Request: fold
Amino acid sequence: MPRIRQKRRVLLPPKMEGFKPFGMSRCKVGQIALTYEEYEAIRLSDYQGLTQAEAAEQMGVSRPTFTRIYEHARKVVASALIEGKTLLIGGGDFESDTYWYRCCACKQVNTSDEPAPYCQSCRSKDLKLLHDPSNDTNVSTLLCYHDLRIYVTNKGEMIMKIAIPTRANVVDDHFGHCEYYTLVSVDENNNIIAQENLQAPQGCGCKSNIAGVLQEMGVTVMLAGNMGQGALNKLSSHNIKVFRGCSGEVKQVVSDFIAGKITDSGMGCNAHHGAHDHQCSHHE
Ligand SMILES: [Zn+2]
Ligand SMILES: [Zn+2]
Ligand SMILES: [Zn+2]
Reply:
């Protein structure tokens, strides 16, 4: 029998996706993740002033488990504060009774017992699901960071998955006709932690559902050569941000991207999804 894991109950989502330091050089800003249950531990203990025993009971975990969550939470917050890191709140291994959404239009957090068709405060239908009570395990959350979308996993790890249309180890100019896709996973310290190849679909990729396949695999960034508006729109609609104008060896392109040397060659910032909070001076 598998060991039954203690449930870590989180009452409500935080209002924000995270915190950014200011008054320092933005290029030096790193990032760190606080999981939802770590946020909850700080809320119960430091904000509400519960004893650790009371907080543990509220979260439905043993006292030692609570202490472990709480101490790690403090370490994460301290490291953001001292080192000047952006704190992203998301992901985690927890349960909550309600559906959580963030409205992409007004940024309001919505919670409800049933799936919500629109935002309770502005009626926008552009809602991003943060938590589904029918699927509590292994929650990973998609967050925006400097315009890029990063997954925070249930362990609080931040992963960005990049796809590169490839032919013979070189970026293929036409993403729909490439030989295969090189998929690269990058962690929060910009280390490449995994690399794999995904066979391109037969025939013209423009007509296939490759964008949907990549999205399901967790891809949020594509480094491509030239790309038409149609393909670009299709990838964007699957939450994949495309950097056009990349060329040369795949390995070099990835390391240039990680070093922040790559910007999209053909897209102005007003073409972004308007709801994504970012400051464009950094990547223009
Ligand atoms: Zn709204
Ligand atoms: Zn094509
Ligand atoms: Zn931008």
About this structure: The pocket of zinc ion (ligand 3) is lined by residues 147, 269, 272, 278, 280, 283 (CB under 6 Å). DSSP finds six helices and 14 strands in the chain.
